[in-house]
Request: fold
Amino acid sequence: MSTSIDLFDAINTQRAIRRLKPDPVPDEMIDKLLSSAVKAPTGGGKQNWSFIVIKDSDMKRKIGDLYLKERGTAGPQGFPTGNDMTPQQRRIYEGAQYLEDHIYEVPVFIIACIKLSSPVTDVTAGASIYPAVQNILLAARGLGLGSVLTTRQKRFEKNVKDLLGIPDDVETAALLPIGFPADGVEYGPTTRKPLSEVAFQDTWGKSWTN
Reply:
């Protein structure tokens, strides 16, 4: 099993990895991912999350068939279409399409679920599940695994819930493909906007300076 790396090394190099080897992932590693997930905070300390680990080939194929059936019914989310994409946008979109077409080949899925006590439609709806998802992503990076936060399963949520027997009052928040990065695929560093553009001091628009 890979040795762990420094927390800030993981933060600075964790990136979306959509091309993964079909090689099996040891259960000990999956256990570490799940153990990291449940260390995350939840609203009111309710811990109203669930995590479904899918390794069965038939089940992965059935979920993969749902992706293929819906392929092309939705454009690149948040991106322009066609020639209006930037090179970076096109690279991300094509990577997402590749994963969608080959997702059944990924060795492990982790589906992160959340039980909602009442319908929540604002940004706080994800406060009790996405910190756990980020813990999984960081733990995966620390163990030498690749993954990416995907939400495309929301397009056919009912079908996924029916397949997996998920209760009506539980929603899927993310499907995380887990595996070792494909040959030639590397971790970060990632490219992000400078803090001067996104971090403010005291009032909106006054750039944070250090």
User: Anything to note?
Assistant: The two ends are 39 Å apart (CA to CA). The chain is about 35% helix and 10% strand. The CA atoms of residues 118 and 198 lie 33 Å apart.
